Amino acid sequence: MQQLIFFLQKFKNFLFFLLLALISLALTFNNLNFHKSKFVNSANSITGGLFSQASSISEYWSLKSENKLLAEENTRLKNLIEQNSTIIYNFDSIIVDTIKYHQKYTYTTAKITNNNYSKAFNFITINKGKNQSITKEMAVINSKGIIGITDNASSNYARVQSILNRNSKINARLKNSSYFGTLSWNGLEYNTVQLSDIPRQAPLKIGDTIETGGKSTIFPEGILIGTISKVNKGNTADNKVDVLLFNDMSNLGYVQIIKNLDKEEIKNLETQNE
Amino acid sequence: MNKPFSMAILFFSLLFLQVFVLNNILFLGYINPYIYIVFVFLYPLKENRFTFLFSCFLLGIFIDFFSDSGGIHAFSILCIAYARLFFVRLYFKKVEADYPFFNLKSESFGKIFNYVTTLTFIHHLIYFSLANFSFYNYSNVLLNTLYSSVFTLLLYFTGTYIFTKSE
User: Fold this and answer.
1) In Å, how far is A51's CA from the nearest CA of chain B?
2) What ipTM was reported for this prediction?
3) Minimum Cα–Cα distance from A116: chain B residue
4) How much is the average pLDDT of B35-39?
């Protein structure tokens, strides 16, 4: 017993160091796990509040580019309305507005208050949370394409796992042929992600557009991602291609969060089968 | 000035400097200085290291909160905080009786340079290895360590040159 106390006396500094080191390592491992990251993140009220203060100062520098984005999106949406209205006038039939009776997605606008893109595991903080009915596993996009998936929400802030995170896996497909694969990131360049597991018979050309596949309950179908920038000529197991993102991930302002209203129903159905 | 009070001021100013200014520099897209480890150099030496280790851990975990990195900063600053005494003995040839009188400013520049550079490199290597979390792209980790260390050291030595009172 005396020797034990002597041992503790002698190594008390080291033991204390070991305790703190184990705590921090446990936090690190938990943070890398999508379903366990609860404690240390920027979505709590103190860091979230401070970040939103800081971004309210720095957002003045991006007002111009943000304005341009909005104008572009407006033009695109006006064109879409124009296309629809000609359909209504040309065909002499009753159009049932299905959107009105069965809405599948709701969109919420949020502002990015903190953005990382230079690490291997990047996260983004946005200024909407549980009070605005944002929960985990919701899609985050902007007018140019996908941004990520929410992974943690406090009452007024949420943390988004960016597509520039080595844990991100998103279902994506070719726009022209609907062959689908998995979108992930190798951690090297912030404007290039990798699409893997595309079937070998799929025709791949540089410049082809990649969009979301709609095979998951998170992302709706057909949201733009990027264009193919490099095709692997050799025979590799995963048939990986590089995708150049439409979004400049280092310069993001406002985003939309998509909530899938049918998610519960789909999840219930899928678990019943198991 | 009162020692604990000035250390508290140093703690918070380093924290906010790091998370709001230095984390946004991203020179050439990815190089950042991590100047908050200055806290380890400036904290007075004592035989009882509990408060020192714990405040270093707190500083690291606060920075982790802001940069969404789990406990990486906490772990790496804790490692150099624990290793500090060993390097003080190695480079400055101090024994236990000298600790209360130890002052970094009164030492010669060569010794300080060795001491600060070693600790900075250790910290950055641990930090980038954990941030990468695999041996894939390890050359990137080493390059990041080298560039960021140079950046941090440059900032530290210009900082001490500016803030030292000229006699």
Assistant:
1) 8
2) 0.83
3) B67
4) 90
